[in-house]
Design goal:
The chain is mainly alpha-helical. It has 24 helices and no strands. It is found in: Cell inner membrane.
Amino acid sequence: MTSTAASVVPVNPRSRVIVASLIGTSIEFYDFYVYATAAVLVFPTLFFPNENATAAQLSSFVTFALAFFARPVGSIIFGHFGDRHGRKVTLVASLLVMGIATFLIGLLPTFDAWGIAAPAALAVLRFGQGLGLGGEWSGAALLAIENAPQRKRAIYGTFPQLGAPIGFIIANGLFLILSLSMSPDQFAAWGWRIPFLLSAVLVVVGLYVRLKLVETPVYQRSLERGERVRVPLAAVIRNSWRPLILGTFIMLATYVLFYFMTTFTLTYGTAPAEATPGAKVGLGYTRPEFLVLLLIGVVFFGLLTPVAGILADRYGRRRTLLVTTILIALFGLTFQVWFAQANDSSVVAFFLIAGLALMGLTFGPMGALLPELFPTNTRYTGSAISYNVASILGASLAPTVALGLWSADGNIFLVGLYLTGAAVITLIALFLSKETRDTDLTGEAQEAELGSAGSLAP
């Protein structure tokens, strides 16, 4: 009876799984990074003009951090509907929320036109971005791994993870082109709006792909067995509180590393190399110069992400992440050593490559590991909460904390030490966790439910 039922369960073609999980997170991260880059490059002067340079940057980072506090709220809302009503409709809704908020930021008047209402509206829209991303990642990860054969779940789980470097490259590459093709006054007046407005085109493409999906076989089996719970959040807290906590801290070092290597380094790299009133000493690169170096580093982020998936399928998620996290802890101790020779752009490039390569190795396995910690009927909610609460602890505060630890004379040893501390916490969580590679997502024998790799329609 079971095998008969399994034979008629509709499946998503492999190509559609790859494209839908990849394009959605690429768009979502594009939207998110557009804001992160603007928060460094233009928002301090456009929305907080009455403050000194450091205070304006801090205010801009506060609005940046708002989205991370919105993300757990989004994970609860979208997680509820994702576990109760399916992955497909929830993925469409999260993409719309993120896209609309990003588009409206591109239309927002600045402080000169609206006064205090302008940064207030910016904060509201930033919160909306966070709500959308709070539901996006987990749904995309579930779409990938719930359509995957058991022994290839980690590599399938890297499809949505690749959205992070791809979105970053598109967003910052566009900012770079705009910076080079127009004057600073033109860029500040209207050029910065273009990446936000273009998100509307990308959202339409993402919606087209996602509306053609069917529910994952794993989720359909769960419904057939009557496993749907009334309140997924309550079920997660009651039955899965331990993996919820461990999953959160397993993600901690990943978040701290990424936002140090992108948002903070962009601030540090473009800060004046000599002391100026109200500003800290940095590397003195122009924005286009440092964006080029950063984009080179992010390429290695993208290249190492699928490598991490292969390693996690072969050696296990836990072992792969233990080695990577130890390397991250050691890397944090070297921050000031690298930048003692920062007048050499090749040294800066190697620093960014090293840090972002580690980012690929730690981020890649998360697409499989976090969902594997939870049963099907609460998997969306549980993995989304772990992922997004970690964003508060690791990412929302990281740029602001880094700004505080950055000495006025340019020394950033304490910034690196902060990363090392986060890595130690993640190591403890990994030591307390169990390997999830052999977890059966279906509740039955994986091979009987999904078959071999060829079970997915070609």
